[in-house]
Amino acid sequence: MKKVLGSTLALAVLLWAMTVPWQDPAMNVWWWRNQILLLTGLGAWALMSLIMVLSLRPVWLERPLGGMDKIYRLHKWAGIGAIVLSLLHYGTQLSKDLLITLVGRPVRGPRADWWLNTFRHLAEDMGEWAVWFLAAMLVITLWQRFPYHVWRYLHKLLAGVYLVLAFHAVVLVPPAWWAQPAGAFVAVASLVGVLCAVRSLAGRIGGSRRHAAQVVDVQVHPSGVVELECQVQGAWKHRAGQFVFLTLQAGEGHHPFTLVNADTGDGRLRFAIKALGDYTARLAQQVAVGQQVWVEGPYGRFDFRQDRAPEQVWVAAGIGATPFVAWLESLVANPAQAPVVQLHYCVRNAQEAVFAERMQQLCAQLPSVTLHIHHSDVTGKVAADALLASAGPQASVWFCGPQGFGQALRDTMQRLGRRQGRFHQELFQMR
Predict the structure, then answer these.
(1) CA atoms within a 13 Å half-sphere pointing along the CA-CB vector of 229
(2) Is the pLDDT of residue 414 over 60?
(3) At 122, which helix (H) or strand (E)?
(4) Which of 29, 79, 288, 404 is the most buried (most CB within 10 A)?
């Protein structure tokens, strides 16, 4: 993620630097203000255009970026970066009155005769309103208590905001830029971004990977976990460890859920959903056998088979056990392909250990997989050091569970001098 963001911003800086008249004798405060306006604007536009490409959930980027969950993380931070740069851009624009008070009015030459100047004031006003909307979206996105279903509709409006800002960007680009690489970049980025925005507004994101399905079984565990089994209509194929966007109610929209089962070729999909918010807390009362739902996917590259470490540590924390159950099911048909694994299933109590019995049955058929079940109400909270101590220093770690637990594992690996590249985590913080 950092490489992509860094490369995008570095490209923007390079293109801006190529436009700067570094030998200009009038390099005063007004000259620098103008250059800051151009640089922040170009950087924000580069990130916004990247966001629009990522918003289409491009499967072809899963391999280089590490999976759709990583794409969503990149989308989020690119959005934050774009809004921050937009606010800096707007703040620089607002500095005009202050600078006039401090250093006096600038000496301006005649403005270049350019046909887009007709729309200049309109573009400035539209850009101002768009920045205020972006600032509001940043606040409610970071405020996790803001209702998801409301946020989802507001988030969809960002495609329309992008079209407004595309007009702002194209109109206000200095005419001289159109003969330089910076102008070519703005043109291409704007064209690609506008096409993506139109596709988003038309509701065509993920359409080719969307399947109708029907709920065929519902089980509610004492812990509150709801297990659903769905039958997909039409051809379906997935790898163990992947997830889908499941739409149970049109008004609520889709949510990502990992598949609990391996692909058996019959189009059956199982999900285990824990009450983690208002929507999932009401799920048991709102879903029923026979209900039609929509499944989009599969997505993700959380796959232990790409790992070349001599042994692996799988850490399944609570509902994060779902991909590991699917992995175990996929290995039972051919136990010889199973790596040497220390599997740790970490739960607060026996009631929360929804998959304990199923894991024990599957691991009994896989000699190279050793299962450890940890109940924190009996033995106390399991320490990251203890989990890593079960395998050698060259072991890789595969984790799915709460973000805080995952960060503790990362920190422990770093403290022990283990390579961070051997840590793999499923990221489901998609907002």
Answers:
(1) 10
(2) yes
(3) helix 120-142
(4) 79
d(C-alpha 228, C-alpha 292), whole Å? 12
Taken in order 290, 295, 301, 306, the sign of the CA dihedral is: positive
Q: What is the pTM of this model?
A: 0.88
**pLDDT, tens only, 119-167:** 888 998 999 999 999 999 888 888 877 777 778 788 889 999 999 999 9
Q: How far apart are CA 213 and CA 204, in angstroms?
A: 19
d(Cα 25, Cα 37) in Å, to the nearest integer? Answer: 19
Residue type, 294: W
Please name every residue paired with 227 in a beta bridge, in sequence order, or none if there are none: 219, 272
Q: How far is CA 267 from the centre of its chain?
A: 27
- Give the number of other CB atoms < 10 A from CB of residue 147: 11
Per the DSSP assignment, residues forming a β-bridge with 255 are 246
The residue type found at 7 is S
Please give the Cα distance from 387 to 406 (Å, whole number). Answer: 12
Dmax over Cα atoms in the chain, in whole Å? 82
Domains of the chain (ranges; CATH) run 1-202 (1.20.120), 207-299 (2.40.30.10), 304-426 (3.40.50.80)
Cis peptide bond N-terminal to 298, omega within 30: yes
pLDDT digits (tens, 9 = 90+) for 203-254: 889 888 999 999 999 998 888 889 999 999 989 999 999 999 999 887 777 8
- Amino acid letter, 22: W
How far, in Å, are 91, 102, 104, 340 from residue 97 at the CA level? 11, 9, 9, 67
